[in-house]
């Protein structure tokens, strides 16, 4: 038996939607799987060079965790897994979340678990601690989620805009980005932060990109603290807004920045921005409305 698994990347937070809003994007992790005598992971993309080739690989670790949940840890058949990815590692585009999703999908087919979408989202969120990256990669589109042991989520339709990624040539580990955050907010600060997040969600649901962009600039949760870890953040933010972006936000933990732009203007803006900042990688990304796809081959 052999399978293919394709998982879209994701961006999270969208400003004040910290740990709760995410959307799937059209960069992908792809796995080709064949049953074999022993586990082996083969990197077929430059950005995956150096990944663990055996059971230390994150995908296998997730397979094993899921198997244990269902009492099938001794029933996992060995596989050769060829991995190909378009998603830069440690850049805030959900590279680790796609591996988690791929591991859950692989466990589901190898162990014949018949997991529902809701089962997969719950398992992935339990593993990650929040749903913002894993839920969009599983379901596609934009997902707003809450997690308190049980995950609750809702999907929002997104159309008419492109998300332009500005990707620097350095990594930023999520742990380091987390350590930059405050330990607590006062009650007054929490109310203010909540109002920014609430208006952000209303604007997102209405497709009011101008208002969403304004709320992104008012995010009190993470961007004011994390931007210090990213050289030229303020300069780039000002430049992109001045050049016509509705809003600019830090993708996940960073260091990638995403600009929300009109779909029709995206390619011309990217060409211009590449000239202005050639040291960055620029991608005009679309929302991926399909989540993870598993096929028997």
Estimate the strand proportion: 25-35%
The dominant shape is globular
Tally of structural domains: 2
Class by SSE composition: alpha+beta
Overall average residue pLDDT: 94
Number of helices: 10
The main β sheet shows up as: 7 strands, mixed
CATH class of the largest domain: Alpha Beta
Counting DSSP E segments of at least 2 residues, the number of strands comes to 11
EC number: 2.7.1.39
Organism: Gracilibacillus pellucidus
Keywords: Kinase, Transferase
Protein name: Homoserine kinase
Describe the structure.
With 297 residues, this protein is an alpha+beta fold. It has two domains: 2-156, 2-Layer Sandwich (Ribosomal Protein S5, domain 2), CATH 3.30.230.10; 161-285, Alpha-Beta Plaits. It has helices at residues 58-69, 95-110, 117-128, 134-139, 174-179, 187-206, 209-217, 223-226, 233-242, 266-276, and strands spanning 2-13, 17-35, 40-43, 79-85, 142-147, 151-156, 161-167, 247-250, 257-262, 281-285, 293-296. The strands form two sheets. Strands 1, 2, 3, 4, 5, 6 and 11 form a seven-stranded mixed sheet that branches. A four-stranded antiparallel sheet has the order 8-9-7-10. Strand 1 (2-13) and strand 2 form a beta hairpin.
Summarize the structure.
By secondary structure, the chain is α+β, with helices and mostly antiparallel strands.
Characteristics:
single chain, 297 residues, alpha+beta, Ribosomal Protein S5, domain 2, Alpha-Beta Plaits, 2 domains, seven-stranded mixed sheet, four-stranded antiparallel sheet, 10 helices, globular
């Amino acid at each position: 038996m052999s399978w293919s698994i394709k998982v879209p990347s994701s961006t999270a937070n969208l400003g004040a939607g910290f740990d709760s809003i995410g959307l799937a994007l059209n960069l992908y992790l792809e796995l080709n799987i064949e049953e074999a005598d022993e586990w082996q992971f083969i990197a077929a993309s430059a950005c995956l060079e150096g990944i663990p080739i055996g059971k230390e690989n994150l995908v296998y670790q997730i397979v094993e965790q899921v198997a244990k949940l269902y009492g099938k840890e001794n029933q996992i058949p060995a596989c050769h897994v060829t991995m190909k990815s378009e998603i830069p590692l440690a850049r805030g585009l959900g590279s680790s979340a796609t591996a988690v999703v791929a591991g859950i999908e692989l466990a589901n087919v190898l162990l014949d678990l018949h997991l529902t979408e809701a089962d997969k989202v719950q398992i992935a969120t339990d593993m990650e601690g929040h749903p913002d990256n894993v839920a969009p990669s599983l379901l596609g589109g934009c997902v707003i989620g809450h997690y308190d042991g049980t995950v609750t989520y809702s999907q929002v339709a997104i159309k008419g805009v492109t998300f332009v990624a500005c990707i620097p040539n350095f990594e930023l580990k999520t742990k380091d980005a987390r350590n930059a955050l405050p330990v607590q907010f006062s009650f007054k600060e929490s109310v203010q932060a909540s109002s920014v997040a609430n208006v952000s969600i209303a604007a997102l649901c209405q497709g009011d990109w101008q208002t969403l962009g304004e709320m992104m600039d008012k995010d009190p949760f993470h961007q004011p603290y994390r931007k210090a870890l990213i050289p030229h953040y303020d300069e780039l933010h000002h430049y992109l807004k001045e050049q016509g972006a509705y809003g600019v936000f830090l993708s996940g933990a960073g260091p990638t920045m995403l600009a929300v732009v009109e779909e029709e203007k995206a390619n011309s803006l990217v060409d211009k921005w590449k000239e202005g900042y050639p040291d960055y990688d620029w991608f005009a990304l679309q929302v991926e409305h399909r989540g993870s796809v598993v096929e028997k081959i």
